[in-house]
Design brief:
The protein has two domains: about 70 residues, no CATH class; about 45 residues, no CATH class. It is about 60% helix and about 0% strand. It is built from six helices and no strands. It is elongated, with a radius of gyration of 39 Å.
C-alpha cells in the first residue's frame, strides 16, 4: 500500500493503544459535554445579569430617575461604554435630564473654603472690634474688649 492511500484505520491518532478503552470513554465524554454546555448557558445568563446590573448602577450613579419607557429609549439610543457620565449625556440629549450646571454656587463655595484651608486661612470669620464693642453689655466688658484688641483704655 502506498502512503498516498493510507486509510483512517492505518492512522493511530490516539495515544492509547487500547481501542476498547477509548470506546468506553465516549459515554463519559458525552456527559462531560452536556455538563459543560449546561454550565456555559448558566454563565451566559450570569454575564447578561452582570451587564444589566452594571448599567443600572451607572444610571443610578448618573443621578437619573427614569420611568420604564425612558429607560428603554435610553438603552436603545446609547452607544458605547455605560459610564455614568456618558449615560447622563445621552439622557440629556433625549430630554430625560437637565444638564448639570458647570458653575454650581455650592461647589464654588466649598472649593474656596478648601483652598483657604489649604493656604492656612481660617474659614470661621471673627467678629470685628466694632461688632464686639456693640455687643458688650457693660463698661467692664468694653474695657476687656479694648485691651484684647490693643486699644487704649485710659478714657473710660
Amino acid at each position: 500500500m502506498s502512503t498516498a492511500q493510507t486509510t483512517n484505520a492505518d492512522l493511530d491518532l490516539d495515544d492509547d493503544d487500547d481501542d476498547d478503552n477509548s470506546q468506553s470513554d465516549v459515554p463519559s465524554l458525552r456527559k462531560e459535554v452536556k455538563r459543560l454546555s449546561k454550565e456555559n448557558r448558566r454563565l451566559a445568563g450570569l454575564e447578561t445579569e452582570n451587564a444589566s446590573l452594571k448599567t443600572t448602577l451607572a444610571i443610578r450613579d448618573a443621578g437619573l430617575t427614569l420611568n420604564d419607557r425612558q429607560l428603554k429609549a435610553l438603552l436603545a439610543t446609547h452607544d458605547g461604554e455605560s459610564t455614568p457620565e456618558l449615560l447622563r449625556k445621552t439622557a440629556e440629549e433625549l430630554g430625560f435630564a437637565e444638564p448639570i450646571p458647570d458653575n454650581d454656587p455650592a461647589d464654588e463655595a466649598a472649593h474656596s473654603q478648601l483652598e483657604a484651608a489649604r493656604k492656612g486661612a481660617s474659614t470661621v470669620s471673627q467678629p470685628s472690634y466694632e461688632d464686639e464693642i456693640a455687643a458688650a453689655k457693660d463698661k467692664d466688658e468694653v474695657i476687656a474688649i479694648a485691651r484684647k484688641h490693643g486699644r487704649p483704655v485710659d478714657g473710660f
